[in-house]
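To the wet lab folks,

You asked to see what we're planning to order before we commit. Fair enough. Below is the target structure as tokens, and below that is the sequence we designed to fit it. If anything looks off to you, flag it before the synthesis order goes out.
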């Protein structure tokens, strides 16, 4: 009888644990970010230089939430030590969970979702009202308000810096030296570094017009019937071209 009772207790405990886990997962705002409340808000933020916060309804949905979730999923691992990505679910009914937290930072529930950046535990920047909540705009918001590196898909910080040096000098010998040195780094960094190398080689051969011509070629190719992997490769190449173009002399810019 005692053994049966113990078995039943263990069985019930397992069921409770499964329900708890399912509820916890269901309440998670999005993959790559964490849910916080009045009690945990500052406790988790204090450990990070910056925290990206989305104040929203308790069970967020829709395009704006999906764009935030997309950013969290793609960037949580890339900048894991410098940026914490969180959600604050606010209720204006019942126990009014996190409503005091929203009021503390002057967040208007009628304008949900509202995205802000905290520097440690101090409110640092608010999402500009004129800007749509889109994946690329979230990256732009962070770039403009922090010193964190938020690269475009396929871009590498080290090679973005190399591209900047390469484009800023008009001296062919200096460009050749930068290219030569970057080849040794490419073997170490790998990834898409070979695209940077090839782009610099082409620019040396054909001049800055290569950037314009290659952009047109790739955009046309992206509209044809190609595989998803090829589309991704083209998208990364276009993003890298954007880096080179951003440092091109004004009279040559796209």
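Sequence we intend to order:
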């Amino acid at each position: 009888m005692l053994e049966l009772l113990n078995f039943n207790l263990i069985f019930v405990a397992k069921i409770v644990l499964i329900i708890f886990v399912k509820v916890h997962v269901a309440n998670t705002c999005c993959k790559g970010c964490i849910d916080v409340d009045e009690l945990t808000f500052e406790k988790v933020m204090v450990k990070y230089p910056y925290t990206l916060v989305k104040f929203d309804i308790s069970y967020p949905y829709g395009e704006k939430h999906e764009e935030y979730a997309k950013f969290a999923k793609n960037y949580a691992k890339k900048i894991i030590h410098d940026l914490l990505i969180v959600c604050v679910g606010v209720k204006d009914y019942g126990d009014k969970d996190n409503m005091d937290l929203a009021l503390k930072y002057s967040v208007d529930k009628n304008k949900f979702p509202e995205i802000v950046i905290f520097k440690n535990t101090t409110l640092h920047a608010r999402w500009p009202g004129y800007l749509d909540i889109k994946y690329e705009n979230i990256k732009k918001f962070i770039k403009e308000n922090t010193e964190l590196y938020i690269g475009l898909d396929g871009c590498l910080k080290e090679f973005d810096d190399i591209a900047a040096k390469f484009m800023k000098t008009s001296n062919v010998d200096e460009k050749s030296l930068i290219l030569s040195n970057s080849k040794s780094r490419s073997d170490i960094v790998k990834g898409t570094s070979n695209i940077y190398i090839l782009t610099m080689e082409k620019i040396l051969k054909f001049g800055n017009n290569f950037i314009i011509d290659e952009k047109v070629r790739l955009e046309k190719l992206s509209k044809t019937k190609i595989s998803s992997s090829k589309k991704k490769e083209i998208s990364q190449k276009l993003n890298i071209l954007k880096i080179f173009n951003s440092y091109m002399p004004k009279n040559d810019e796209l």
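Structural context that might help your review: The mean pLDDT is 86. DSSP finds ten helices and five strands in the chain.

Thanks,
Computational group
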